[in-house]
């Protein structure tokens, strides 16, 4: 994950996020061949105007009998892609950077509004609702999923 905390709207969390991200960057993903245990569905991006960060959402299904972590996200369409989690502390809601999210064995991880999201910043081209962007999702078993995400405006997104 590429850390660009200064570009983030929630600057108060930047130093915390940066320290989390440094740990994640040091871990080297293993590369293993084999059948794909993870499948992605309902992949979409909530686009926002005025260069505000976009958010990627996806449902990940694990057909294996072991927990598998989503450990990294990258995109040819954005300069920065980070896994974030929305957390509520009583009356306030913030988001923090996380270095992994677990897809349980024979289960699903739903990356959806209110829970996790993939924060997307620094678009490398003009991206608008109706476009398709690609995210590379890397997992703890060495698998990488190159996944198309449908770009939607907030008005049409569910
Ligand atoms: Cu975020």
TrEMBL record:
UniProt KW Isomerase keyword: no
InterPro entries: LpqE-like, Lxx211020-like, PCuAC_sf
Domain of life, source organism: Bacteria
Stated name of the protein: Copper chaperone PCu(A)C
Keywords in alphabetical order: Signal
Keyword Nucleotide-binding included in the entry's annotation: no
SUPFAM superfamilies: DR1885-like metal-binding protein (SSF110087)
Signal sequence range: 1-32
Pfam family, one: PCuAC
